[in-house]
Amino acid sequence: MSTQERARDQDGRSVGAVAVRGGHGRRLGWLLLLSLLLLLLLAALALWAITANAGDDDAEGFDLSYGDCPSYSGTEGRNETAELAENPERFEKCTVAIDGTVVEAPGEGVLRLEDEAGGSQPIVVIVPPDADSVSVSEVDVVQVVGRAKGSFDAGSTAEDLGIEPALLDDADGQSYVRADTVEVASS
């Protein structure tokens, strides 16, 4: 229930009516305040999601987990070439460190590596233009650090990567890595 009071100036003259409300105005104020806080929380969550994915140049989509990688994956001084060649899905989306001999360089930005023992099938290494890389040729022993991508599909994977499919038409099922760095190993 509201009442009205008359506002008065210094001389006691009436200057207008002022409504004095009960609790209805306070509830509306709290509701407005809670709505603004919820909106602020949603904006902060959206900003976090955008910044969390800002540095991800992986064309395969929004992924913050990068899979369940072995704890040693990508460790300096470790060679995961044979393990990666045998089980590409285990290292999918993991950073890996591989050493191997270049057995084929079929085109610009594409290498095929084999571990130095020669016991595993070759690993396809895609070297994008932005990778920290040196020029390599066949028989060079190289060290590669990059993101493992699983098994290679010569048709769809090659086209997605902008590579001529004919360069790797016999690479179906082989492991492949998107290189971040490629260095010639010191002898």
Would you give an account of this structure?
The chain is α+β, with helices and mostly antiparallel strands. The protein folds into two domains: 3-52; 81-184, Nucleic acid-binding proteins (OB fold (Dihydrolipoamide Acetyltransferase, E2P), Beta Barrel). It contains three helices and eight strands. It has a five-stranded mixed barrel. A two-stranded antiparallel sheet has the order 1-2. Strand 3 (95-107) and strand 4 form a beta hairpin. The termini are far apart.
Helix fraction bin: 10-25%
CATH class of the largest domain: Mainly Beta
N- to C-terminal distance: 92 Å
CATH architecture of the largest domain: Beta Barrel
Please state the overall shape, judged from the principal axes of the Cα atoms.
Answer: rod-shaped
* SSE order: EEHHEEEEEHE
SS content category: alpha+beta
Keywords:
OB fold (Dihydrolipoamide Acetyltransferase, E2P); single chain; rod-shaped; two-stranded antiparallel ribbon; 5-stranded mixed barrel; alpha+beta; 187 residues
